[in-house]
Every structure is written in structure tokens, then in C-alpha cells.
Amino acid sequence: MTSMSGELSRKTSLRNSPISTRLTWQEALPLVGLGAAIVVVTSVFDGSFKLPGHTGLAWLALLMIGRTTSRYRWAAGVSSIGAAVVSTLPFWGFGDPLKWLIYLLVGLALDVMFNLAPRWQYNVLFLTVIAGLAHAIKPLMRVGISAATGMQYSSLLSGVLYPLAMHVFFGLLGGLLGAGMVWAFRRMTKH
What we know:
The chain is mainly alpha-helical. The chain starts with 24 loop residues before the first helix and ends with a helix. The chain is 63% helix and 0% strand.
């Protein structure tokens, strides 16, 4: 049950257990696998809707599932390292030699925001917002990459505001979907 503040009751909380600074292999392997799954899903849906940021729906949902089910302090970063490594394999054909950096920075941004607000870490609204903000890193990084290297991104040809808004929108939806799925699963298994 959600209170008026959006905070979940203890019975249906996203809280897994206290956040840990120690990463175990039992936790690392599924997180890295989640990162690989993120690359597969974004590769399958990349370009299919012709909307900037649409892959963020699945990407941030998976990243949020890993973040909210892991006790490790840098769980999204571990998944993002997995995504970054897998994305460098040549058969994906992303056409962006720096895509790995974007995968890495989105996960790290999510973890930084998550860790800066321990009081709000299990609030679905907070998790939704930080997912949207983390996904905004992608178009902002592309602006910087384009300015530094001259590399052109088709999503930025008409400016940055629309792609930025769409990335935030799909990141918000992905964060809500991921956090909501974890919340619903935990609620169903407690009965």
C-alpha cells in the first residue's frame, strides 16, 4: 500500500535489505547478465519507433530492476559495465564507437542519485524520477561528443530539447515499470 507521500508501507516496500559496499559473485553475475540483456533489448528495438529515447523504456526498466533488487551500492554500475563491454562486440553494428560510454554513464548516474538520497531509495516516485534523469545523460553526452569530435547524431539534427524531453519521458516510464514490477512481485510473494 502506498501512503499519500508515495512511500510504500513496510509490507510492500521495495526494500531488499541494507545497502552493501561488498559485491559477491552471486550478485555480480546476474547484474552483468542484466547488462548484456540491456544491450540485446536495445539492439532489437533500436530505430523501430523512430522516437528519440524509446529504447530507454526497456533499458531503464531492466536497470531499475537490478538496482532495486540488489544490495550492492553500485548495482546499476555493475550492470552498465556489463552492457558497456557487450556493446563493444562488433556484431551489434551500433555505428557509434562511444555507445559503451553512454551505457556506462547512465548506470553510474542512476547509482549516484540513488546513493545520494538514502531516505528516498525505496520510494517509487523517487526511483521513477532518477531513472528519467539518468536517461537524460544520453542526449547530453551526445551533444558533448558531437561538439568534441564533429560526429553527427541524427536525433540531434533539429536541436537538443526534443530528444532530451523524450529521453527523460522514456526513462521515467522505464523507471516506473522496473520499480513497479519489483514492488508488485514483492507484494504478491508476501501473501
